From TrEMBL:
Molecular functions per Gene Ontology: hexosyltransferase activity
Organism: Hyphomicrobium facile
InterPro entries reported in the protein's UniProt record: Glyco_trans_1, Glyco_trans_4-like_N, Glycosyltransferase_grp1
Domain Glycosyl transferase family: residue ranges: 189-351
Transmembrane feature ranges: none
Keyword annotations: Transferase
Organism domain of life: Bacteria
Pfam family, one: Glycos_transf_1
Protein name: Poly(Glycerol-phosphate) alpha-glucosyltransferase
Domain spans labelled Glycosyltransferase subfamily 4-like N-terminal: 15-174
Amino acid sequence: MKVLLVTSSLSRSGGGVATAVQALSRSLLATNADVNVVGLRDSGWERDTEEWQGIPASPLRVLGPSAIGYAPEARGCLERSGADIAHSHGIWKYPSRAVAKWGASTGRPYVVSPHGMLDAWALKHSAWKKKIAARLYENTHLRRAGCFHALCEAEAQAIRELGFRNPICVIPNGIALPSFEERKPAPWRSIVPEDHRVMLFLGRLHPKKNIAALIEAWPSDAANTNWHLAIAGWDEGGYAEVLRKLVKARHLEDRIHFLGPMFGSEKDAAFRSADAFVLSSLSEGLPIAVLEAWSYGLPVLQTEACNLPEGFREKAAFRLSLEPDRIAREIRVFMGMTPEAQQEMGRNGRRLAERSFCWGSVAGQLLQVYAWLLDGGTPPACVRI
């Protein structure tokens, strides 16, 4: 089976989508599937090229505004691939049009993974641009999909509420489980006393992550509990400066620390050294960062918008609200838990990650969906008709 994965970004500039496509590609290749990846070349490609080592990836040159992502080479690249099936990751940019055209010209099926981009909050963000894209090409791309890929039941419901009646497979993102090794030096070792505790945020610095509310909620007397907030992530559109000003206005520079983007061994050290992980998002598809935190055995503080209700059911996550005043009370409750109770929450998360979120299982389920779209027969168990 020749599988073509198509995405609007091949770098960290695209958030967690590029990371998910990389991991899925490696897992599919491990099954001996013939896999190729096509994506837009953006400002982060040169920096992240090594992340794609061993994966056949084609970065496409973009002409004009990056928000549109017009890549004139896209359609020819797709047609030359000889793929049996295509899988779109992310929407709203020119690759959507190219995939729809490829499907129409070849008669071959394709899958669409919106990665949370059809959730209500996401649709309201830059709504006018999305309405234009929908009218020009995105509605066609979505309507013609052989199957949607939703990361969770909530995303599947959001797709249905928009009126789409295509089949939907519900398959979560996955993670590669780290081994338990000796703790590496913490990235914050020069600014946080060794006997103090750290709650880690790791991801894009973007309004939908609701980091501003988290900063406003951070207890001003956190010195009494020895907790620090470490914010690790890459800036998007200058938002980091907005957040820094909030920290300065609250006089919390000695308790809230900006560490910049972290990848590879540095990210691994951050997860191994943290005492908890937090994601206060307003909207998510299914956040890989939470799955990674569980894989490292960390207790997680998350909102319901993270779409991981199993975390609450399995007592692997502490529930956060969206508003600063409520978040402040909830963080105090978490900080007041005994270290033993927090560690048990982390162990529950590790067990949950091992059981439900490994990339090998994700790739296997998607291969079943691809085969069903190509050959027909009984839909796989993950498919909602």
